[in-house]
């Protein structure tokens, strides 16, 4: 064997892969990984088929099909009042993860520092490290996982290049509030700090709350990469289609990397989504669709010994199990899968230091019968 020095020596298989594999092996209900167990829109599938039959089967333009970029620009202006040029400021990507990796690759150099908030989605830190950057993490605490901006201020120095935000947040289902935006704006004013805003759950906001996209705030918009996804809202995570929006000076650097990662994204699916977006209800109706699932799942879990944590967005529900056991969350999640047949994600996996608050994350993007069956098992824990 030829010796290989790993670029990510501390990185193993993601917790999502591990728990989904365990669920499959045990025949457990998989509420761990974030994907639906029901089909996406038949209309959307028909539109993909239509695009294929019309001959849209060759490479798309590197930046994406123009019709889709135009729909995204229209949607963004309508929702957030932000104007993006589809020619120079929007790029279609192979899912949100690729967009995040590309944005980090485009601007982070060795020894640049990037602030992330933990628990954090697991693709942020590895991408930073691969570019030679330094991860500066700030640990948030349940039940509300609010950002302590005075602590963020202490992390900022001359080497700080980027702050990564995620709202609605995975795994905690919390969201940014207007006071967070005010604190962030004051913090980065007159600083050469970029923002990477992971907004893949932008349409999954509940209880009359507002999605505070970076696109709403001109000063923040001009320093932000905004990442979104079609896989999550349209129940088609396997299609891996997302996008990135950024001012032209940032998008120019983004595309330099993008062209050598994937070059272009699935052509017929881009045409289909562009057509699907013409009906606003296909994305504006998502909040109510998932709110009903959230409320149904929460009502069922109220019969259990789990303590429900707030859920303001996304399709995840976190629960505390302190009233049940003092086991480590990784051990407890495995035991729940083995003994009760429901797979979850231990939230300590989202902390670089494995901080364990005795919290599990469940995905409720499932059929009602799936959720009911899971609840029947979980109330026995």
Descriptors for this entry?
15% strand, pyridoxal phosphate binding, Aspartate Aminotransferase, domain 2, aminotransferase, 381 residues, 39% helix, methionine-oxo-acid transaminase activity, Aspartate Aminotransferase, domain 1, PyrdxlP-dep_Trfase_major, four-stranded antiparallel sheet, seven-stranded mixed sheet, alpha/beta
Describe the protein's topology.
Elements (H helix, E strand, L loop, with lengths): L14 H12 L2 E2 L11 H12 L12 H15 L9 E4 L1 H13 L5 E6 L5 H7 L3 E6 L9 H7 L4 E7 L11 H11 L5 E5 L19 H4 L2 E6 L12 E4 L2 H14 L5 H10 L4 H4 L1 H16 L5 E2 L7 E5 L8 H12 L1 E2 L1 E2 L12 E5 L4 H11 L3
Parallel strand pairs: 1-11, 3-4, 3-5, 5-6, 6-7
Antiparallel strand pairs: 2-8, 7-8, 9-10, 10-13, 12-13
Family: Belongs to the class-I pyridoxal-phosphate-dependent aminotransferase family.
EC number: 2.6.1.88
Pfam families: Aminotran_1_2
